[in-house]
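Input record (one chain):
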Amino acid sequence: MRHLLDTTDFTLREIDDMIALAMDIIENKPKYAKACEGKKLATLFFEPSTRTRLSFEAAMLELGGSVLGFSEASSSSTAKGESVSDTIRTVSNYADIIAMRHPLEGAPYVAKKKTLVPLINAGDGGHAHPTQTLTDLLTIYREKGRFDKLTIGLCGDLKFGRTVHSLIKAMCRYQNIRFVLISPEELRLPDYIIRDVLAPSGAAYTEARTIEEAVPQLDILYMTRVQRERFASEEEYLKHKDAFILDLDKLQASKAELTIMHPLPRVNEIAEEVDDDPRAKYFEQALNGKYIRMALILTLLARREEVEQAPRETLFACGTCKNPHCISNFQRVPHLAGRSETDGAARCVYCESLIR
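The corresponding structure, as predicted from the sequence alone:
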């Protein structure tokens, strides 16, 4: 059975096929109106969400299926202390496919071991958000017509931004990709992303401290919000929340064909005056999320009987994960690690944090 925990769970050919399917859905909507008739999607959102949850629900409904689930942990048995393992094992009796968002990093890995149906990671803490990445890929394809020979600026919270981490992993698999990392020093891209993803791929990258110095060279500017929920204190959040605000003045030196993206929600990192600029594509991006999730649901349901390939790495017992947001520190799961193929370092199997 195939699942989606990370974008790299699919080959480039499989992603191309999914993009092609999404494009066909866009052009031939009536053709898919009953594609999931009689099927049920369970949306298990242990963390607040608007676009991701509603786009999943809209996707399944437009495919002729139905939806059940919850939109916050307090309305589920989690409030009574139920584990992710038990929730997933139970809910997979009631649905044909599950989309799950959880604040603890690595929760989808735990769920995958217990589910009876295909599982989609709809975001786990600051770790990964693969369906947002598929949304981003569809948007890039519709705007640029290609995935190679692009310079991509990633701006804002690069440390905790799971959308950024997932997008880098995805785009590093294509040729002649260059990244410009625009962030304050405190919110720089994590070292493990640079060491385990960027460096082995050969993708070029530079760092910038302002939007103005980066924008003239960019084909894509990917803005992110500074996420209040990822900070340990309100004081630390307030220190960084207004670090980067995109307005029309900062776009004066940009290419005419620049594409501005944002996973949303925005707070104030993009001025509203930018919304009507033809380079702004973030609301179209949100719409693309519905289409790519339709394609993903169809793909996973069609491949439900497919045997998943065994993982390449050998796992071993390890000490407590140092990541305070890792699920292994909150629920009864074995502490496991695997060796990195690039540097041999031991990493938590759930959240990918370095085990020291």
